[in-house]
Design goal:
2 domains; 10 helices; seven-stranded parallel beta sheet; single chain; Rossmann fold; 326 residues; four-stranded mixed beta sheet; UDP-galactose 4-epimerase, domain 1; alpha/beta
């Protein structure tokens, strides 16, 4: 098969591209490079620059490269920004997906894997979130991901296309230093940036109903997440008409304060965090049950939080050598 990977020059997307190609799958990257980095795309992988909102460009890419499956990762993803710019998020994430699906169904592409998010759950009142936990997103970002799942599922049912929605939990780490997260919207690189600048890492709220008052999250290594994509993509190929919704996590909750303590330990810094007000749209605790994907497809995470932070730090120092402690 030949997989079109939208957003394949991004942090997660580049890991998915590498995992797919190393597994023997053919990949084509489609990315507008608004946040993606062309250098992340392997030389042997075609890179088509374009927006998923450009219907003609998408249709040409599907036809010219003989695409037989799509992994859709291209999206806006910052919770706080989505609260401030909801119309922008609905346009990029929902309308962009609709345009893409229209082209995909017209081209009779048989498999479609959608990048969803644990943000669809909102603030679940359970220890472990299963795929049956009610979805009550707290932010426009989460709403767009849930609407995206509905669109993908409906298109699959109407056409017979095999579909899957992967609900990512909190992604961290790097499979290789050159693929590390260069943005600072996620907790780990955000802490690295503050430490590198001689500032204390920030905690957004310490009055949540959790053991230490800070948000609790389930962190998943990006290399594990990429391997999950390979597993699910192959499942779609082998089972036409499949409709999967799967959590991708480790089933272990770690608080923000605990994560920052571990970041300090790995980096060699020792700067206690400062507490700032809560961010809108942040739930107190979201931890996955990953039992379904383990039972149905045999996938489970291999890496722990220490691996995530250490590999992410190696990538950060590669770009910011001045940050390394002597």
């Amino acid at each position: 098969m030949t997989w079109l990977i939208t957003g394949g020059a991004g942090y997660i997307g580049a890991h998915v591209v590498r995992a797919m190609t190393e597994a023997g799958e053919r990949a084509v990257v489609y990315d507008d490079l608004s946040t993606g980095v062309a250098a992340r795309v392997p030389a042997e992988v075609p890179l088509v620059r374009g927006s998923v909102l450009d219907a003609d460009r998408v249709a040409r890419a599907l036809a010219e490269h003989g695409i037989t499956g799509v992994v859709h990762l291209a999206a806006k993803k910052q919770v706080g920004e989505s609260v401030q710019r909801p119309l922008h998020y609905y346009r990029e994430n929902v309308e962009g997906l609709r345009v893409l699906l229209e082209a995909v169904t017209a081209a009779q592409v048989p498999s479609f894997l959608f990048s969803s998010s644990a943000a669809v759950y909102g603030m679940p009142d359970v220890d472990l979130v299963t795929e049956e936990t009610p979805c009550r997103p707290l932010s426009p970002y989460g709403e767009t991901k849930l609407a995206g799942e509905w669109l993908v599922r409906a298109a699959g049912r109407a056409t017979g296309m095999a579909t899957a929605a992967l609900r990512y939990f909190n992604v961290a780490g790097a499979a290789a230093p050159e693929l590390a997260d260069t943005g600072v919207s996620n907790l780990v690189p955000m802490a690295f940036e503050r430490l590198s600048q001689g500032a204390a890492p920030r905690i957004f709220g310490d009055d949540y109903p959790t053991p230490d008052g800070t948000c609790v999250r389930d962190y998943i290594h990006v290399a594990d997440l990429a391997e999950a994509h390979v597993t699910v993509a192959r499942a779609l190929r082998s089972a036409p008409g499949t409709d999967l919704t799967l959590n991708i996590g480790r089933g272990e909750g770690v608080s923000v304060r605990e994560m920052i303590d571990r970041v300090n330990a790995v980096t060699g810094y020792d700067r206690p965090p400062t507490v700032t007000p809560r961010r809108p749209g942040d739930p107190a605790r979201v931890v996955a049950s990953a039992a379904r994907i383990a039972t149905e497809l045999g996938w489970q995470a291999k890496y722990d939080v220490q691996d995530m932070i250490a590999s992410a730090w190696e990538g950060w120092v590669r770009v910011h050598p001045e940050a390394a402690r002597s």
